[in-house]
C-alpha cells in the first residue's frame, strides 16, 4: 500500500499555498514534514484529511488491487491542539469511542488495557477531560488513533507539548506503529525529525521534496536550512 499525491494544489483567495505537491509515501517509515511557518503543512494535512476541498490534483491509496480513494476510516489526524469532549471522563470517552467503532476494531480489549498502551495514570482514568493537561489530552488523542488503526496517520506537531518522559513513550509508540502504516509527522524541531523520522520531506514554495538520506546529520541540517532560506529570495 502506498499513499500517492499527484499535482495537489490549494489556494486561499489569491495565495497559492500548495502549488504542485507530488509525492509517494510508503508504510514502514516515519516521514518528518518540515517547512517554514506558513509553508502549508497544516493545509496539506487538512486536504488529505478531506477537511477542505483541493483546487487541483489528486491523492489516493494504491495497493496490489489498484487505486482506492481514501475513506474517512483510512486516515487518522492527531492535531497539535488536541480536541477531546471535555465533559466526559477519559474512561467514558474511550468506552464511547470503542462502542461506536465496534465493527471496525480488530480485537477488543479491557478499557484499562487500552489506557496502559499510553501509560495514562490510573488515578486520571476517571477524571473529566476538561481537567487534563495539554499533554494528557494529547495522549488521549493518540490513543484513539492507535485503537482506530488507520492506514495513514497524520501528526501535526504532536510531541511539542509533552514532557520528556511522555515524549519518549510517544516516540516508541510511533516507532511500533510505523510497521504497517504510513506516518507523516510535521515538526519545527529538526533534532526530533532526525531522531524519530526515517525520511525528511520539505514543504517549500508549495512543493514537497525529499532530502537526501545519504548525508550525515550536520550536512543534512545545512541542506535543509539552505533550501528553506531560499524561500526568502524567491
Ligand atoms: N482557512 C484559511 N483561509 C485563508 N488562509 C489560510 C487558511 N488556512 C491557512 N491559510 C494560509 O495558508 C498558509 C499556510 O498555512 P498553514 O497553517 O498550512 O502553514 P503551516 O506550514 O502549517 O504553518 P506553521 O508551521 O506556522 O503552523 C498561510 O499563509 C495561512 O495564512
UniProtKB/TrEMBL annotation:
Q: Which UniProt keywords apply?
A: ATP-binding, Nucleotide-binding, Transport
Q: Which named protein is this?
A: ABC transporter ATP-binding protein
Q: Which GO terms describe its molecular function?
A: ATP binding; ATP hydrolysis activity
Family annotation (PANTHER family): ABC TRANSPORTER ATP-BINDING PROTEIN ALBC-RELATED
Residues covered by the ABC transporter domain: 3-230
Give the matching InterPro entries. AAA+_ATPase, ABC_transporter-like_ATP-bd, ABC_transporter-like_CS, ABC_Transporter_VariousFunc, P-loop_NTPase
Amino acid at each position: 500500500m502506498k499513499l500517492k499525491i499527484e499535482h495537489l494544489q490549494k489556494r486561499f483567495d489569491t495565495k497559492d499555498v500548495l502549488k504542485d505537491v507530488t509525492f509517494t509515501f510508503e508504510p514502514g517509515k516515519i516521514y518528518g514534514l518540515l517547512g517554514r511557518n506558513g509553508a502549508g503543512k497544516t493545509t496539506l494535512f487538512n486536504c488529505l484529511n478531506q477537511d477542505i476541498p483541493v483546487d487541483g490534483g489528486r491523492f489516493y491509496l494504491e495497493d496490489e488491487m489498484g487505486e482506492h480513494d481514501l475513506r474517512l476510516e483510512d486516515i487518522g489526524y492527531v492535531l497539535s491542539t488536541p480536541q477531546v469532549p471535555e465533559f466526559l471522563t477519559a474512561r467514558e470517552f474511550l468506552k464511547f469511542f470503542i462502542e461506536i467503532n465496534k465493527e471496525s476494531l480488530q480485537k477488543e480489549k479491557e478499557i484499562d488495557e487500552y489506557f496502559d498502551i499510553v501509560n495514562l495514570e490510573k488515578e486520571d482514568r476517571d477524571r473529566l477531560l476538561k481537567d487534563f493537561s495539554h499533554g494528557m489530552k494529547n495522549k488521549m488523542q493518540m490513543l484513539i488513533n492507535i485503537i482506530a488503526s488507520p492506514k495513514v496517520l497524520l501528526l501535526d506537531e504532536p510531541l511539542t507539548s509533552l514532557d520528556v518522559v511522555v515524549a519518549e513513550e510517544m516516540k516508541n509508540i510511533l516507532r511500533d506503529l510505523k510497521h504497517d502504516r504510513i506516518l507523516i509527522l510535521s515538526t519545527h524541531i529538526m533534532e526530533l525529525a532526525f531522531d524519530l523520522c526515517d525520511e525528511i520531506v520539505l514543504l517549500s514554495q508549495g512543493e514537497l521534496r525529499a532530502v537526501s538520506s545519504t548525508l550525515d546529520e550536520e550536512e543534512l541540517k545545512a541542506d535543509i536550512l539552505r533550501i528553506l532560506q531560499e524561500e526568502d529570495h524567491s
